[in-house]
Amino acid sequence: MNRSHLILAIITLSIYLSFKQYEQNRVIPNYSFCTGEKVEYRVHYGFINAAEAKVEIAKSVSVVNNRPCFKVNATGRTVGAFDLISRVRDTWRSYIDTSAILPHMFERQIQENKYRKDEKVIFNHNKDQAISSEKNETKTFNVPNNIHDIISGYFFLRTINFEKVSEGEVIEVPTFFDGEIYKLRVRYSGKDVIKTKFGKTRVLRLHPIIPRNKLFKGESPMRLWISDDSNKIPLKAEVELVIGSLEMDIKSYKGLRKEITWF
């Protein structure tokens, strides 16, 4: 390699590394959530209460990978008759960078009948790697730049300005889950007004696109209504199953950055 080619290569590499570092230290404007937020949901199958879910941001900021992070807990449990048929006690946890809205650590403790799973994933965004640990076994996966986990992907979607998203447009978020990389895909379907236990409010309609499987019905079996304000919290969801459907409604909330307008 002659001197001119060497200089060109060094300049090109420097530009690439500078751009990559910028991407890793990105700053996403966040007007949607903060520490202390807590939202609870009721899941029902027809008139039967099936489960309860809760999404909660800790009141204090945690530090992971030397970065300040929101500690987010998402829990779900079956109740009533469903608890006798299929007992579920699941906890999902993500430590999300307060500036970049990217995950630094993801944990899940799954208890579903006799099935158990306890996994921890550390994200090294400098090397674009996800290191998964489970039962004294550690695996390292190469992942795309700015990868998300399930929870951080949801919180990233809350930062999106849907006024700049066209109706019918599909938003894609690269996501790492269970050792695989896929795109979390959500279609924006416009605005609406719905009624909740707190009153009526304006919402945005979203359709998460789920790969076909034996449990759900069709490619878009889920409909999600989120508040049409800066919070963008889910207020209602419907899931079409092969047999019947599940509905989720907001049960309680506190600690939002902005009070929801009901009418």
Describe this structure in words.
Helix content is 14%, strand content 51%. It has 263 residues and is mainly β. The chain has one domain (28-254): YmcC-like fold. The protein has a 15-stranded antiparallel beta sheet that branches. The longest helix has 22 residues, at 3-24. Residues 2-23 have low confidence and may be disordered.
Quick overview:
This protein has one domain: YmcC-like fold (Beta Barrel). Helix content is 14%, strand content 51%.
User: Please, what is the average pLDDT?
Assistant: 90
Highest-level CATH class: Mainly Beta
Helix count, DSSP H or I runs of 4 or more residues: 3
Tally of individual domains:
1
Q: What is the helix fraction of residues, given as a range? A: 10-25%
Instruction: Write down how many β-strands occur, each being a DSSP E stretch of 2 or more residues.
Output: 15
**Low-confidence blocks of residues:** 2-23
User: So, CATH architecture?
Assistant: Beta Barrel
Keywords:
DUF3108, mainly beta, single chain, DUF3108 domain-containing protein, YmcC-like fold, 3 helices, 263 residues, 14% helix
SSE layout and pairings?
Elements: H1 3-24, E1 38-45, E2 48-57, E3 62-64, E4 67-78, H2 80-85, E5 89-97, E6 103-112, E7 115-124, E8 129-134, E9 137-142, H3 150-158, E10 170-177, E11 180-196, E12 199-209, E13 222-227, E14 234-240, E15 245-254
Antiparallel strand pairs: 1-2, 1-15, 2-4, 3-4, 4-5, 5-6, 6-7, 7-8, 8-9, 10-11, 11-12, 12-13, 13-14, 14-15
